[in-house]
Design brief:
By secondary structure, this protein is of the alpha/beta class. It has a single domain, classed as Rossmann fold (3-Layer(aba) Sandwich). The chain is built from 8 helices and 9 strands. α4 runs parallel beside α5. The termini are far apart. The structure holds 2-hydroxyethylsulfonic acid.
């Protein structure tokens, strides 16, 4: 294997943590397959980092099969990053379609891509599977029921995979970011309402950036083969807990 360029797949690579992760892995020498629905964005990114763009909807089986075909027989790193929050309604009044969409992209999307690429990760002889979780996968908060349920699903799927894959050459990691300020996450959650999005970060001295999380993904992906990072919970200094945020 000496001298072989390592490869990585990043889903949700069109913006935010996914795009930053693709850049960080490319900077570490990986050939990165950038997967997302928005082809124009991932094509621009792939050109920038000398990677490959694959148009992919992780909730669509045929689309994920296409991704697996492009990836081929071997891949060293898979970052299941595609996900998101839709809506901030309380459980009593939440829209079922928001919950369904969150389960579909965060949980089923991670399952679909994992199932499709696991043979290639195993074939690499030293695969690293990284699921993008959230602090929402470890705690509950008001108005977050559908998202926290989905991210708890990602957390448990990650733990289950680690149990099931022990003895194989695949490591399994969950990265669980807290308050990260990206261009789209909050806007999507609040259906384009910038005021609501801005209120989340109001007065917080330094929320995390997409690059902060990408940096940790690259670190996890470049540990020696025998080192499995199970879980990284990452919050800005100003966030001691989900409900305990320092604001100036
Ligand atoms: C994002 C973290 O606090 O919005 O995954 O749930 S939070």
């Amino acid at each position: 294997m000496a001298g072989r360029q390592q490869s990585a797949v990043v889903t949700g690579a069109s913006s935010g943590i996914g795009a930053a992760t693709a850049r960080a892995l490319a900077a570490h020498g990986f050939r990165v397959v950038c997967a997302a629905r928005r082809t124009d964005r991932i094509q621009a990114l792939a050109t920038e980092i000398d990677g490959i763009a694959v148009s992919c909807d992780v909730t669509d089986a045929a689309s994920v099969r296409g991704l697996a075909e492009t990836v081929g027989a071997t891949v060293d790193v898979l970052v299941n990053n595609a996900g998101g929050a839709f809506g901030s309604d309380e459980v009593a009044t939440a829209k079922a379609e928001d919950w369904q969409a969150m389960y579909d992209v965060n949980v089923m999307g991670t399952l679909n891509v994992t199932q499709a690429l696991l043979p290639a990760l195993l074939a690499s002889g030293d695969g690293v599977l990284i699921n993008m979780g959230s602090t929402a996968g470890r705690i509950a908060y008001e108005g977050g029921g559908g998202y926290t349920a989905a991210k708890h699903g990602v957390a448990v799927m990650t733990e289950t995979l680690r149990l099931e894959l022990v003895g194989t050459p695949v490591r399994v990691t969950e990265i669980a970011p807290g308050m990260v300020k990206t261009e789209e996450f909050g806007l999507v959650r609040f259906a384009g309402d910038e005021e609501k999005r801005d209120a989340v970060y109001a007065g917080v001295p330094d929320p995390l950036s997409a690059e902060d999380i990408a940096d940790t993904v690259a670190w996890v992906a470049t540990r020696p083969s025998h080192v499995n990072i199970d879980l990284l919970v990452i919050k800005p200094r100003a966030q001691a807990a989900q409900h305990k945020v320092h604001r100036t």
